[in-house]
Amino acid sequence: MNNRFDGKVVLITGAGSGLGQATALQIAKEGAKLSLVDLNSASLEETKSKVMEVSPKAEVILITADVSDEKAVENYVNETVAKLGKIDSFFNNAGIEGKQNLTEDYGIDEFQKVVAINLNGVFYGMKYVLKVMKEQGFGSIVNTASVGGIRGVGNQSGYAASKHGVVGLTKNSGIEYGQYGISIKAIAPGAIMTPMVEGSLKQMDPDNWEEVGKQFVEPNPMKRFGKPEEVGYLVAFLLSDQANFINATVIPIDGGQSYKY
Ligand SMILES: NC(=O)c1ccc[n+]([C@@H]2O[C@H](COP(=O)([O-])OP(=O)(O)OC[C@H]3O[C@@H](n4cnc5c(N)ncnc54)[C@H](O)[C@@H]3O)[C@@H](O)[C@H]2O)c1
Predict the structure, then answer these.
(1) Is 9-190+228-251 a CATH 3.40.50.720 domain?
(2) How many A from CA of 136 to the centre of ligand 1?
(3) 135 Cβ partners below 8 Å, 6+ apart?
(4) What's the pTM?
(5) Among the atoms of ligand 1, which is closest to the Cα of residue 195?
(6) Whose CA is nearest to atom 16 of ligand 1?
(7) Whether residue 14 has its Cβ less than 6 Å from ligand 1
């Protein structure tokens, strides 16, 4: 078994569910101390108990915070350093999809909310974590973008704007911080079966969402949804020292769908 995170401190936002939880489990198995952040404290407790099952000696702190609140972000970064001593790796992942609608019908409040969480939240996270990493002289960051951050998907004005913004932030900061030994990358997941995607399918057809899901993945070259643990394996690699030279770039994990004509 790999132990790429022995003695390392890994900070994860959106750790209560889906991709954040799957990544926490993978990284805990490899020896990390974890600082887990989410808006939902009950879901954080659930992730912690799953972590303790796979890694009974793991050191884990839980921080309930809203990533769209700059002060709360500054606090989760400070609390992580105060309690665990440093931040080796940061999975800057919390996000929401928002309601689906044509651009002309897309709600102004909805747009602002999605951007506040998905884009401002990622920027605040990088702003405070990079200060710590620059002083340390090492670190790795993975920001969660989306296929909706590299392609047009439709009906997702807020999501598309925010995720394209995450890709832009990743390229910009990766160029700035490579000289300090810090690598920054984004992932662009396609449809991965998490509570977010289940919610999205239910928006399309509440009574028949599983059937809608089957049709949804039909154009995918692999004809299936991705699994959260598949993203966990990728993020663990990208956050590890093995991936230090991968910087300022975006990596799709989507069964090949975003390259299909
Ligand atoms: N599942 C997919 O198919 C998919 C595809 C592309 C990108 N993504 C992105 O992956 C990330 C994780 O999504 P997921 O599928 O695991 O969703 P999820 O809903 O299962 O998990 C997201 C977590 O983020 C938390 N969260 C939401 N708003 C928050 C806030 N303001 N502050 C702190 N925490 C907050 C939620 O409580 C939840 O625990 C998101 O950024 C999402 O946009 C997901």
Answers:
(1) yes
(2) 29
(3) none
(4) 0.98
(5) 20
(6) 18
(7) yes
